[in-house]
Design a protein that fits this description.
Blueprint lengths: L1 E4 L2 E6 L4 E5 L1 H11 L4 H11 L4 H15 L4
Antiparallel strand pairs: 1-2, 2-3
Helix pairs in contact: 1-2, 2-3
Length: 72
């Protein structure tokens, strides 16, 4: 579950009962996951919006996914 507010939000992990504050980039990654987008598709969107290399983007997206969904 997330609650959007200007491309930012809060995520709740029901397995751990933890809330996470999401910055704009993390929010966009979570929206991509909710839309069943691949890491590559999420990165393509982020690369178009931010000055980030494909390699760094994939690394950061995967780190964010692992943070939000440990053990995935």
């Amino acid at each position: 579950m997330n609650n959007s507010a200007r491309e930012e939000g809060v995520a709740f992990n029901s397995a751990t009962n933890e809330y996470f504050s999401l910055n704009e980039t993390s929010f966009k990654i979570l929206k991509g996951i909710e839309n069943n987008s691949s890491v590559e598709a999420i990165c393509q969107q982020l690369e178009n919006e931010y000055d980030i290399s494909k390699l760094n983007c994939e690394k950061e997206v995967k780190n964010t996914i692992n943070f939000l969904f440990p053990g995935s």
